[in-house]
Amino acid sequence: MHFHFEVNGHLLFLVSLWPDMKLKPAYIYFFFSLWLSVLLHSQNQKADSLLKVYQSTTADSNKVKALNELFAVYRATDEEMAVKYVNMAVSFGAKTNFTNGYAYALYNKGQFEGRHANFDTSDHYINLALIQYKKIDNKTGLAACNMAYGLNMYDKGNHKEALAFFLESLK
To answer: How far apart are CA 130 and CA 140, in angstroms?
Structure first.
């Protein structure tokens, strides 16, 4: 049993495991389903752990961190849950003294809105995040906000303004 690459076919490693068999849709479906179930199971375990942290901790900073992480877990697979957790992070973060976590929640909300072409809403949240990051002189956060502004400008077709924000993010 050895591994080699072929140009035709998906999941090329199957070809080398069973060289006498043609790659059939049933095999592709089986391995894709297996891969997806493992991925989703690990995602659910992480989400369950983060929910336990959120529910059990008394520290505001840990709650905001858990909500931001829950957003990250769900943003690519379940937008409804992602929006729920980013909104909770923004709302709860506003009531805490954990400026960095609150700023990150605002940034996440802005990024999410930008990916959905809600540029005005995105810019609003990115601006709020920028204000919070300036309060604590978080240069990485400031750079991320400028990059997000640049991406919004680029997506709107304002390439010169986008370039200015991209360059600002490098400072």
So the answer is: 11
71 membership: H or E segment, kind and range: helix 60-74
Residue-level pLDDT at 34: 54
Q: Which amino acid is at 18?
A: W
Q: For residue 1, what pLDDT is reported?
A: 39
The total of other beta-carbon atoms located within 10 Å of residue 65's CB is: 22
Helix axes 99-115, 79-94, angle to 10 degrees: 150
Considering Cα of 161, then 162, then 165, then 171, what sign does the dihedral take? negative
What is the mean predicted confidence (pLDDT) over 46-67? 80
* Closest CA relative to residue 75, chosen from 47, 117, 38: 47
Question: What is the value of pTM for the model shown?
Answer: 0.72
Q: Which of 110, 105, 104 lies closest to 91 in space, CA to CA?
A: 105
